[in-house]
Write a structure and sequence with these properties.
Layout (H helix, E strand, L loop, with lengths): L5 H6 L8 E4 L3 E5 L7 E7 L6 H7 L1 H22 L3 E3 L13 E5 L21
Antiparallel strand pairs: 1-2, 2-3, 3-5, 4-5
The structure holds zinc ion (ZN).
Length: 126
């Protein structure tokens, strides 16, 4: 099925070989092919779906399976590195139009923690 996205066309088809972290019948977690961080893992449902909102509406069972794998990946990164971030994008923030979570960690993110919204030390702009 050519849906015109990297995960369906290249990763799930096997055209691009990825380093798998966890694979279940419905979900795949693998190391990003062009990582932006020291640890950068992508978690995707094997079935094409646009984003988290779409999946929540269409397939709560798959959402639960995806959540289970994401949680396990976070657990592994936490165990190995002691911190991580988890993001998924929507709309024009989302480059690849197939739901994916990023689980990532980098040593140099420690210095940025205080400036991120949502962190305990966040200060509003003056
Ligand atoms: Zn897709």
């Amino acid at each position: 099925m050519d849906t015109g996205d990297f995960y369906c066309d290249d990763v799930l088809s096997g055209k691009v070989v990825v380093k798998k972290v966890i694979e279940t019948e419905t979900v795949l977690a693998f190391h990003h092919t062009r990582p932006s961080y020291q640890v950068h893992i992508v978690v995707i449902p094997k079935r094409h779906t646009l984003d988290l909102l779409t999946l929540s509406e269409e397939d709560p069972a798959l959402l639960a399976q995806l959540h289970s794998v994401v949680t396990e990946v976070v657990r592994q990164v936490m165990r190995d590195f002691g911190a991580c971030r988890l993001t998924t994008n929507f709309g024009f923030f989302q480059q690849t139009k197939h739901l994916h979570w990023h689980v990532y960690f980098s040593d140099d993110m420690q210095g940025t923690a205080q400036t991120l919204p949502g962190s305990a030390e966040h200060k509003p702009p003056e």
